[in-house]
Amino acid sequence: MCADNVIISIKGKQIYAESSPDEIELVTAGTLKQESGGKYSISYQESELTGLEGTTTRLLIDGGKVTLLREGSINSQMVFEEGRRHLSMYETPYGALSIGVNTRRMRSTVDDKGGDLEIDYAIEIDNLLAGQNLFRMNVKKNPALPQ
User: Can you give the residue range of the structural domain that contains 53?
Assistant: First the structure.
């Protein structure tokens, strides 16, 4: 498939104990590819809006498991699996952190035509709850391209 074959709408909400919720909304062009074994890959360039400019984000959807990979100005890998906790490394400008990702709920309808992905998860830093996150993504074919 060609580059930027889909339009990706992302809504993220982070809830921290000490402050008001932080919400972000992003619409960007990206790519959707069907990988071997029924997996789907979604990738896009982060922007200034997300604070991750110069970073490529790739989500690999494999049944009940989603792996988020970031490469560029920030490098990280996070694994989401409903009802499970995964340890991940998260690189920041100040050094790498080991974080726990505890996925409470995950739903995906993504196929070769697009679809929705929703992940409700908690992040722990040094085994302490750092925040609750709700991530929603909608992927649809780019209407400017031939179908």
Answer: 6-141
For the chain, the residue count is 147
Burial label for 80, CB within 10 Å (0-12, 13-18, 19+), is: buried
pLDDT tens for residues 33-47? 999 998 999 999 988
Q: Based on the structure, what is the number of domains in the chain? A: 1
d(CA 110, CA 89): 26
List pLDDT tens digits, range 91-129: 777 888 888 999 999 999 999 999 999 999 999 987 788
Token output for 143: 């209407």
Q: For 17, what's the count of Cα atoms within 13 Å in the CB-facing half-sphere?
A: 6
Q: Are 56 and 70 in contact (CB under 8 A)?
A: yes
Residue whose pair of structure tokens reads 């991940």 in the numeric block: 88
CATH number of the domain residue 96 falls in: 2.40.128.20
